[in-house]
Write a structure and sequence with these properties.
heterodimer; A: alpha+beta; 3-stranded antiparallel beta sheet; 9 strands; B: mainly alpha; about 0% strand
Chain lengths: ~200, ~400
Amino acid sequence: MADNTVDSKRRNFLWGVASGLGAVGAAGVAVPFVSSMMPAADTLAASTTEFDLSSLVPGQLVVIAWQGKPVFVVHRTPGILKRLTGYEHKLKDPESHADPRVEATWMKTSEQRLTRSIKPEYLVLNAACTHLGCIPLFKPSPGRAEWGDSVPADWPGGWHCPCHGSLYDLAGRVIDGSPAPFNLYTVPYKYLADTKILIG
Amino acid sequence: MIERMLNSDLAKWLDDRSKIVQMTRAHLTDYPTPKNLNYMWSFGSLALTVLILQILSGIFLSMFYKPSAVATIGGYSVAFDSVERIMRDINFGWLIRYMHAVGASAFFFVIYLHLGRGMYYGSYKKPRELLWVIGVVILLIMQGSAFFGYLLPWGQMSYWGAIVITNLFGSIPVVGDFILQLLRGGFGVGDPTINRFFSLHFLLPLVLVAIVVIHIHALHTVHSNNPEGIDISKKDTIPFHPYFTVKDALGVGIFLTIYAYFVFFNPTGWGLFIEPDNFSPANGFQTPSHIAPVWYLTPWYSILRAFPDKLIGVMAMGLSLGLLFLIPWLDRGTVRSARYRPMYRKLVVLFFIAVLVLGYCGHSAPTEALKLIGRIATAVYFAFFILLPFVSKHEKTLPVPKEI
């Protein structure tokens, strides 16, 4: 070649364009692969779980599965419902406002917001502790008679998470001093009949 | 720009502790390459590109694929169902699956051209005999890997192809039955078979990566051949970067364009990449009317079928692959490139044509005419190896240039 001088500007321009296009191409290839790891269509397809509430005796808790997640269903007695007030100052979020996940569209009345359920006697909540996901232990009777030192002296009844000590009341509201930041999350559900619900 | 990166402080820090910059210069950027290489020398980098594409798409497929021949409620296997799930439910699953299927065929297309380059230009001759041998090893591992992979969807062709090919190994005297049970994991081709084939299909390409590194190491020890086939001095070489990085990038670009055409507009490759029968779930009680391996294995299949005796057919097929290893020693000539070997050129072109004819015959139903043609092509195939020592010893070669 006769002319040996390098046109640096042209060379840099060509390198830049080629590298830029190459980066766009690489991103184009990466998108489908990363996307494939997101939940697939069949996983996302809304799955629902029916549950017959009449199978519960008053005071009973069951843990059922919905979309692979554990869900608490509690048949609360009138006694329990009376005990849900009086200690709001000890709760982190008594009105369930702190996060979208602790409230629900069906919380229309203030009673529903208090009991955190559509009908007061049946509580349906996501069973995962909002700290790191363990399933808390059900300790419904107030005080320390049954539970010893695992609960505080003024225990209103509720749940105690064994993993890191978070405490929730019988409406799933998180108690001050717990590492968990939020009340137990709600799950979408509705009544199909008087004692039959559809979760999801 | 690369120079700036290689001279940076970080690069020097890494180099002091790993020689990474020295190795990059010796084997990539400053590697001395003959200045007269033509595009037939691009197929090595293309093969590496396809290997990477296959491993990438394969790893993602294995996140969703389930290697189980157990029947689902629908009656077909869990494996077949998982492939359909990939095609329909996984985001872009159809794309990843088609990339992998097209890529398999692309891999063989590229590698056959790469081999052809080697045979035509004498890239297997001294001092590159080991390089060639490693290459044939790569070919065999690719064939094994492709066979194991084709089984995995558990379609009709997967199942019956597995029955036929594993039966082949069963015909080996003395150890045949033992090998057959070892391969199948049971009495027939079934759940144990598909599970272990999945494991081996995952393993072999990773082994291939290591062998490709050895292949490139062997190449860099003796340096590349060139179309004239003559030894060259340093002054006739140019640095791999930027000349051949850019040239290979063009090759990759053209290849990916064609590859993209197939992946997006013709993923079954007119029934050659994924055979139509494989979209039906495996049925152990009904053999498809027309069993053939995928196109890239058909030449060897043709040789197998050319012999009426089962054992001789299997041995001939094995021999047809084994003889490839011996080419550097069967060829006793001193001139490398077919450009200067008119007799050898005719012989090797006949060989290529025979392979193409064998491929066509192996893919088609064996009519009387095709059987005869297949036998003739088999004869030509083996004649290449038989004649090579004589042709190479006695051929009149053209005068070879002193420099390129």
